């Protein structure tokens, strides 16, 4: 019988990591963090509420169902939830562009066919960069852009600059949720080793509710746009995931933890 050898420590052993979203996403991320040795702290910091202009959304979705648009752009999985709840119909004549793979997966799961996902940069900038090639330069196209209330109109303005006929409609509002006081004090006291930042709205809540973040706490952003948004809110960002996925975000934190452990030894 071969003698047993001590296994190497998991990269996030001893680390408490704040997960800023609950629900199935939060549960999945928490499980992945535990697999790497971390103790996840799940505290939803944002939630989603219906748009303040429901009639405008209803009218736009009616025009969408009637074939009034050549394309519809979807920039988040939450927008997919809105489409599903409204039982929105996207006719075969209308093509769907998703800003990233997470959104595309949500659309597919909801039964919508996705025609365009940026190959390089999963962001509004990435979608704009690939738009003309994907649509063979046809101008103008009738495009419906669905967005959150606080989202910057980068995609809408970019498509209009190209010469397209764009209607932009707010699909939902993002609202902040107060985190429990014990989590606030734990972050302040340096008892949380890392905070995951998954969107600009999360970044805002982290800074408002938990800032200033101690220098010893790693702040990890899910992508370049989220990092830019975070810095605009005054939130320091230490690492950025290579891809805009939860798995890549966790890998970035694990790599930073490993580097920190090596530097300390």
Task: Please give a structural write-up.
The chain is of the alpha/beta class and 265 residues long. Helices cover 42% and strands 19% of the residues. It is built from 10 helices and 10 strands. The strands form 2 sheets. Strands 2-1-8-9-10 form a 5-stranded parallel beta sheet. Strands 3-7-6-4-5 form a 5-stranded mixed beta sheet. α3 runs parallel beside α4 and α8 packs parallel to α9.
Q: Count of helical segments?
A: 10
> Which class best fits the helix and strand makeup?
alpha/beta
* Principal-axes shape call: elongated
Order of helices and strands: EHEEHEHEHHEHEHEHEHEH
What is the terminal separation in angstroms? Answer: 33 Å
Structure in a nutshell:
By secondary structure, this protein is α/β, with parallel strands linked by helices. The chain has 10 helices and 10 strands.
What is the fold's blueprint, element by element?
Elements lengths: L15 E4 L3 H13 L3 E4 L3 E5 L3 H12 L5 E4 L2 H9 L9 E4 L2 H9 L14 H11 L7 E7 L5 H9 L2 E12 L4 H8 L5 E4 L2 H11 L7 E4 L2 H9 L6 E2 L5 H19 L1
Parallel strand pairs: 1-2, 1-8, 4-5, 4-6, 6-7, 8-9, 9-10
Antiparallel strand pairs: 3-7
Helix pairs in contact: 3-4, 5-6, 8-9
């Amino acid at each position: 019988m071969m003698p047993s050898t001590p296994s190497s420590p998991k990269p996030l052993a001893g680390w408490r990591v704040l997960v800023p979203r609950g629900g199935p996403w939060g549960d999945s991320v928490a499980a992945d963090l535990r697999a790497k040795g971390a103790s996840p702290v799940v505290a939803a910091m944002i939630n989603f509420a219906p748009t303040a202009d429901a009639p405008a959304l209803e009218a736009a979705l009616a025009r969408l169902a009637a074939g009034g648009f050549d394309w519809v752009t979807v920039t988040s999985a939450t927008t997919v939830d809105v489409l599903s709840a409204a039982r929105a119909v996207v006719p075969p004549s209308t093509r769907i562009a998703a800003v990233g793979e997470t959104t595309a997966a949500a659309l597919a799961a909801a039964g919508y066919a996705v025609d365009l996902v940026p190959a390089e940069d999963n962001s509004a900038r990435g979608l704009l960069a690939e738009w003309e090639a994907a649509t063979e330069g046809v101008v103008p196209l009738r495009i419906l852009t669905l967005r959150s209330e606080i989202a910057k109109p980068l995609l809408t303005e970019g498509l209009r600059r190209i010469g397209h006929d764009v209607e932009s409609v707010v699909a939902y509002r993002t609202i902040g949720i107060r985190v429990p006081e014990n989590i606030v004090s734990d972050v302040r006291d340096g008892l949380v080793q890392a905070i995951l930042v998954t969107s600009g709205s999360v970044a805002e809540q982290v800074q408002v509710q938990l800032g200033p973040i101690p220098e010893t706490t790693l702040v990890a952003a899910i992508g370049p746009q989220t990092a830019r948004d975070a810095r605009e809110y005054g939130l320091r960002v230490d690492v950025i995931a290579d891809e805009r996925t939860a798995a890549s975000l966790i890998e970035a934190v694990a790599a930073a933890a490993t580097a920190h452990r090596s530097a300390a030894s």
